[in-house]
Amino acid sequence: MIDFQNVAKSFQKTNRIEALTFSVQPGECLALCGGNGAGKSTIIKMMTGIYTPSSGSISLNGFNVSKKENQYKKQFAYMPDNIYFPPSLSGEEVLQYFADLQGANRSEVDDLLRLVGLYEERKKKVKVYSKGMQQRIAFAQSLLSDSPIWILDEPTNGLDPYWVHRLKEIVLAKKAEGKTIVFSTHILSVVEDIADTLLFIQDGKMFIHESVPCLLEKGNNLEEALFQQYQ
Ligand SMILES: Nc1ncnc2c1ncn2[C@@H]1O[C@H](COP(=O)(O)OP(=O)(O)OP(=O)(O)O)[C@@H](O)[C@H]1O
């Protein structure tokens, strides 16, 4: 379970996230949406301990997200929105590097390379990978750990339609295994296909927090349901 209690965040005295309270239940898949600059990545970075909230508290499966504590770090796997890859390493070496860093088993690397369709190109340096290929390596990296919570910041960014489809299948399979999932996206059809709940942020405030099936009763699709609420 992910729990946010009155979490706010300011940068240089400007409030960017206003007292946000919500939770994600075990096994739930929550989509984080909102306009550019709304605060999605900031929320995700606070969830993962990269940013410290200005006030309020966050816990992951009961463990406080705080610089002074370590237990919460074992609760989640994370795919950042822009990940640094040592450019001189090949795709295979990058995953081996992350496996070592996370204490994961290197034997999983081949399977993950196959899962993200990069096994044939595993010896190529990541710096020559396309944006979508780098994104798939970042996605594979987040699958090295079998933590109960999986947090993905714009995972479909740069993916072609086939890989968006595959990513949805993989996320749904992980959801069926009982993982608690949070992902951010601008693609409402992805939300419709895989999320249980939508949290829509506008200017750092919660605008909508509702189950996807309930939202879909308000329109033929999520886009229609959401834009009716905007008007
Ligand atoms: N480290 C930082 N220092 C100062 N301001 C920041 C910092 N990180 C984020 N912000 C500001 O906080 C606001 C929210 O940014 P955030 O990256 O969370 O938005 P987002 O919803 O993820 O946007 P996008 O959809 O464009 O990726 C923006 O106004 C941004 O400029």
From TrEMBL:
Keywords: ATP-binding, Nucleotide-binding, Transport. InterPro entries: AAA+_ATPase (IPR003593), ABC_transporter-like_ATP-bd (IPR003439), ABC_transporter-like_CS (IPR017871), ABC_Transporter_VariousFunc (IPR051782), P-loop_NTPase (IPR027417). One of its GO terms (molecular function) is ATP hydrolysis activity. Residues 2-228 form the ABC transporter domain. The keyword Transport applies. PANTHER family: ABC TRANSPORTER ATP-BINDING PROTEIN ALBC-RELATED. This is ABC-2 type transport system ATP-binding protein. It comes from Oikeobacillus pervagus.
